[in-house]
Input
Amino acid sequence: MILFIDDDVVRMESHVDFFEASGHEVDWAKSTSEAFQRLHLYGNDLSLVILDIMMPTEGEVDEEAAKGGYRTGVEILKEISQELPGVPVVIFSAVSEDNLGYDWRELGAKAYLEKAKSPADLYETAIKYLKQPKEA
Amino acid sequence: MLWRKKKEKKAAEDLGLSRAFWQLLDELEDIGRSPRPFLEKFAEGTKADLVGICPIHQSSPQIIRSGIWPSVGTERDDEKRIKTIRGRWQSGLKSRQGNEVVRLGSDEKIQDLLGVDALVIYPISIDHKVMGSLFWGMKQGQFPNGQQPIPDHIANCIVKLLQIVYERDHKIESERLERQSRLDFVESLYNLLDIRLSNIYRRIPENLTTLLNLQFASLWIFNELDDTLSLRAIHDPVKKVKISNFQRVVAKYENTLMSMCLSREQNGIVTGRPGLVSRSAKWDTLHRNMNIVRKLNLEHLLIMPILRRDRSLLGVINLYLETEKISEEKIKILFALTTQISMLIELGIERQRRALESRIQEFFPRILQLDGSQKIWDDIAKHISKVVDCKICSILFRDEDGELLVLKGSTGVREKWEDKPYSELFYSIGSGYTGKCAELKHTIIVYNQGDKEVNPLAEWHADHDQGEGFEEDSQGNWLSLIFVPIFDPEDKEEVIGVIRCNNKNRDDNFQKLRIFTKEDHDVLSIFAQTLAIFHRNYGIIEEKEHQKDEFIQNLSHEALAPLNAIMGHAGFLQRFHNNPTIRARFNIERKYKALVDEAQHLNSIISAIPVMQNLEQYRFEETRIYQDIFSSCISITESLAEEKGLKLHYEFLSRPEKNRIPLLYLDRKKIHQVLYNLLMNAIKYADNNTNIKILEGETLTHYTISFQNDGLEIPRGEEKVIFRLYGRGSNAKTKHVTGTGTGLYLCKLIMERHNGDITLDRNGNPTIFTIHFPKTLEDWSPL
Output
């Protein structure tokens, strides 16, 4: 299961579709509360999370921690690293790497892609980090 | 001959003086130049072993050495002798009337020094003041004739004659001084105008001591900031006391002493009154520490105020004589001179100020052309430190909220001053002491003096923390500090920054520590004013740069969103357009449509940029807001509103005759843009399925139209931001509501050009934007 966490309902559609059309099982959390709900739901079944950084704050992420919404994704990433350390995370954000204010590697993410990349580029990068299902 | 009037001659004959003696007295004519020939003859006539004149003007050397001594000695011996005689005489006089004759019997000292057994001293007085003495001495035994060398009446006569001579000499001397004071002295002082102020200061006591024949003179300048006097120069040809030592030893006592002679008049100006302070009177009562008096061996101290033309106090001249009083004539002359000195100093100060100003003015146009970077502020600090002669100069400005002090430039270590709270930090002297001040409304000068800190500023207020006291800073230095507030150029009450300068010295060099003065304050205030303007101008540049940066950031972010979508759709289509299974599963048509929509949106963002360039051209014409403009806005936005399920409600102005806002002179296109922008905003930021209200209103002077919606709130504190160019509410950015941050800025500009305004009323939800048209637009027509 690949989980997209991004509130941009209109503009991420084709990216999500691309993964789905490529034969992956995909779900899409469109808000932070949805994100936490899905994370709890899938747990270690997640093979990859594609995470946006700037999202409205709500629920478990408060405004102050997320710097007024500018770093909501960072808070979610911290949560994943702690609770689901085996789940790989690829950041897909309009915030440039330099402006993030954190070292995403230290936070536990596998890769960082700035938005305005074609779905194929995102796919190529993300698929490298896909968690292989445990062999029985 | 001056003294040989008939009456006097008669009196002398009555006294029984012989003809021979008259001849002797003829010689007195020359006594003013050298009394020696007279004394020699006199000694012969009286058969005395020792004859001398001891005048009060002990500083006139040629008179000191006068007299017949039993043995030939050096000049130094003569001085010693005269001192002894004077000492005996004075101690003998202590319990008597000033004019009494003192008779002294044998004593060891007299014998040792003068080689006489007996000494008689006759005082010479002018206007009941003792000016000197005439003395006789006998080598062996006592004087004959009942212990007298000559009969009293003869002695009195001689004394009388000496008095006449002295009086005449005195008069000549006074006239000479008077003449010199009017001419040479003033002229020589005015010549000093070509040199530095400090030299002028130095030369004043120097010239005074020479002119008035004094032992010591000092010059103090009054500091209006804190009502204290600071020592600027001393001249001490006899003891050669250095100013630093003097300052250390007596300055603080002096200051107190002199401040006793200052008075504050009703209008607040400080003046001084001449004061004579004698050893017995004030010194003792003032300070238990008699060391100072002993060290300087002061008997009399003259304090003479120097007043400006408006009678306010400029400074003080301070004179000492070791043992005698300063004559009234000298005081009068000195008084007459103070006017000249005052003018001289004022001219010097003015000249220095102008020179400084021109240096400042030369400097600042240069920096104003520069970009205001870190280095420039450091350069300014360096320049200031040179001009005011200080070790470290720092320029600090308050941040936007006014809470923190931000270091702009410094000649010192930067880190120490980085971002300190304005309310907490004003000075720190020594390891254990930090002064606090809530507001810096006046210049503050602080320095260590001996064992305590001195903050001479009277209006230092609030939160003044009494520390443990301090001695020196962590490196063992003494410090002196000055803080000069930088005021807002528009609001002289508003402190926007601080210039801080300090000087330091190793502890053993405390006396060399330069303490800041009023002149430093004057100079720094000029800098402060200029810096305020520079800072403001630079602030505007900075703000524009910031807006530009923000715009580019906004624009790239705004453009990135549709671009991202375009990439997404295009990428998907590129990969899967030939795959029938995928085509069947996903809505391919929708993706094509979205591709076009997003491209259009991108276009609209980019085309918003040049709109602002047309802002300067306005075409005013008679226009109906509703019929001509508003209806078209409604029709454009209607579909969008419907999509979000919004309902538009109108509340019109009820005007019995016309029922609507009347015809106004407006720029139709521009106002169209305003109404469109506001309506679009109201729709864009409204929550789905809510109401948008458009309200007409009227005040005494204006017609108003308000746009009211329920939805995304404008964050507190950002009310001003949204009207700035490229400014957007922070939540609008994160919630991905499209916009370029130009709309409200344009609205504001356009409304201002119509002499109107746009305001935000945000008493919570709903958000209400109101535009105000002045009623004068009804009958206003452009030329």
Summary: Chain A touches chain B through 25 residues (CB under 8 Å). The radius of gyration of chain A is 14 Å. DSSP finds five helices and five strands in chain A. Chain A has a mean pLDDT of 86.
